[in-house]
Amino acid sequence: MENNKSESLKLVKLKDAINLINQEVNLLGVIIERREPKRCRNNAWICTLRIIDDSYNTPGLTVNVFSNKIEKLPNIKNKNHNDMILFIRIKMQSFGDGKGVSGACNQRVSSFAVYEGRTTKELQDGFVCYQYTSNFLDEAQYKSSIDYLGKVFASDSIFGEDLQSSSYRTKAKTPEKFSFLREIKERKRFDLLCKILHVNEDMSTIFVWDGTDAPPASILSNAIKDKEFSSLSVNTLLSREILRGFPTVGTILRVSLSSHLFHLVKPGEWVKLYQLLCEVHSGSWIGKATNSTTVSLAQDDHLVEKITRIYDKRISSNLGHIPYWSFPSPRGLTETDEDQAPFVTLMDIITFPKVTYKYRCIVRVVDSYPWQVEELSSDENRRCRVLLSLEDPTATLEAFLCDNDAEYFWGLGLKNTEILRKKWNRLVGIKESSMCLAPRKPPWIECCIFSYYTDKADPWKTRLYRIFGTRFLN
C-alpha cells in the first residue's frame, strides 16, 4: 500500500509522460506560453498552457486546463515566462490520429499550483506559490524538484538565456511598444498602457485613462438634423458622483471587453491592453476588444511611473488644462472678457463642487439645436437662442447661447443672415465649397461658461450652462 501511494505522488519527466497515453501523471514544468481562456460547448472554461522541463525543452507539452469558473484557471504572473506549474493527476491524451500528445487537467480529479520564477540572484528567496486549486495538497514532497527545475531555468541562467533565443521565446524578447491615447487612429489596432478608472456592473465595459488627450474625432456630416449627433462621451454615461473620482485632465476612453477578459480588470489597476481597436461612434472614440486582445497587469512597470510623472508635470503647469490639440492657443476666432482667469477642462466644470460658477475653457462646437442658420434668430426681434454642444478631450457639455450673450457673441453678424452664415460655418467647421457629407473639423475656440440652476429646491438636478463674455472676431 505504501509503495502504491509513493508511486501516485511521483513526478514524471515530460519526455516520459508523452508515452503514457490515457494514464494519470504528476508533472512539473516551466510555463512558456499561456493562451487566453475560451468557453467550451458545455459552458466550462479552457486555458491552454505549454510547458517544458530539462528533459523536453522543445517544442514543449501542451496542457489543457478545464474549470467551471474562469478565475480558477492558471493566471500567470511573471512576465519573463519562467514561472513553474505543478500538475497532480492530469491525464495524458493523444490527438490527430496519435500524432500529437497533450495533457488534460480537469479540476474534479486534477489539481495544480503555480510558482513564481526567479533570477539567479533571487534563488536564495526560494520559489513562492502564488496560485493553487482548492484540492491541491501539501507540496512539501516536491520541494527539491521545484528548487532544482527553478535553478535550471532561472531567467538569467545559461539554460534560460538559450530558451529566450528559441523560436517560442522570440515574442517575449521583442520590446513592447505602447501608444498613448493621443496617438490613436480610427480602425487601427494598438497596444495601450492605461489605468482602469471604472468597471460597469455587468463587467462588459471599462473606462480607461493614460493622462493624454485623444485626437478630435471626425464628424462625418455637415447637416445634422434631428439630433443625429449623440455624444457617447464618458460624462453622458456615468453619474456625476462617479465622475468626481476621475482625473479632470486627459481623455477617458470607453472600452468594450470580451467576457473571457472580465476577471482581469479591476478599478484602480494599471493594465496593458494588447491589440485594441478604436472606432468613432456619434463623434466619440470607442475602444473595442478583438479576437486577439489580451490583458495583463502593469502595476510595477516603469512605464506607469513615467506616465504618472508626465501627468503630474502637466497639471502643475498653467497650460496643463488646455487641450493638447489646440496648443499653445486656438486660432484667434474668439476673445473673452475673463482673459485672466485660469483655463479649465469641461470635466473640471462638470465635477466642480459649486453649482454656480464662472469658467474659461478651450472647446470645439460639435453640434447645436437648432442647426440651420435661418433658425438661429427666427423671431421678429432677431433674438438668438441656440443650444451648443461643446467638446474637449475630457467631456461634452451643452451650453446655451442666447439673448444679450448671443448678441455680444455674434456682433453685427446677427442682423445679417449671410454674415451670420459665414461665421456659423467657421464656428462648426463647414467649408462652404465642400460637399454635404464632407467631414467637419470644428476649430478650437476660447469661451467663458457660467453654470446656474433653475430650481432652488433641487439645484444639482436643474444645473445648466450658458456661454457669456465671449466675442466671435471678424
TrEMBL record:
<dbReference type="Pfam" id="PF25507">
    <property type="entry name" value="OB_POT1A"/>
</dbReference>
<keyword id="KW-0238">DNA-binding</keyword>
<dbReference type="GO" id="GO:0032210">
    <property type="term" value="P:regulation of telomere maintenance via telomerase"/>
</dbReference>
<dbReference type="GO" id="GO:0098505">
    <property type="term" value="F:G-rich strand telomeric DNA binding"/>
</dbReference>
<dbReference type="InterPro" id="IPR012340">
    <property type="entry name" value="NA-bd_OB-fold"/>
</dbReference>
<dbReference type="Pfam" id="PF02765">
    <property type="entry name" value="POT1"/>
</dbReference>
<dbReference type="GO" id="GO:0016233">
    <property type="term" value="P:telomere capping"/>
</dbReference>
<keyword id="KW-0779">Telomere</keyword>
<dbReference type="InterPro" id="IPR011564">
    <property type="entry name" value="Telomer_end-bd_POT1/Cdc13"/>
</dbReference>
<dbReference type="InterPro" id="IPR057620">
    <property type="entry name" value="POT1A/B-like_OB"/>
</dbReference>
<keyword id="KW-0158">Chromosome</keyword>
<dbReference type="GO" id="GO:0000783">
    <property type="term" value="C:nuclear telomere cap complex"/>
</dbReference>
<dbReference type="InterPro" id="IPR028389">
    <property type="entry name" value="POT1"/>
</dbReference>
<protein>
    <submittedName>
        <fullName>Protection of telomeres protein 1a</fullName>
    </submittedName>
</protein>
<feature type="domain" description="Telomeric single stranded DNA binding POT1/Cdc13">
    <location>
        <begin position="11"/>
        <end position="145"/>
    </location>
</feature>
<dbReference type="GO" id="GO:0010521">
    <property type="term" value="F:telomerase inhibitor activity"/>
</dbReference>
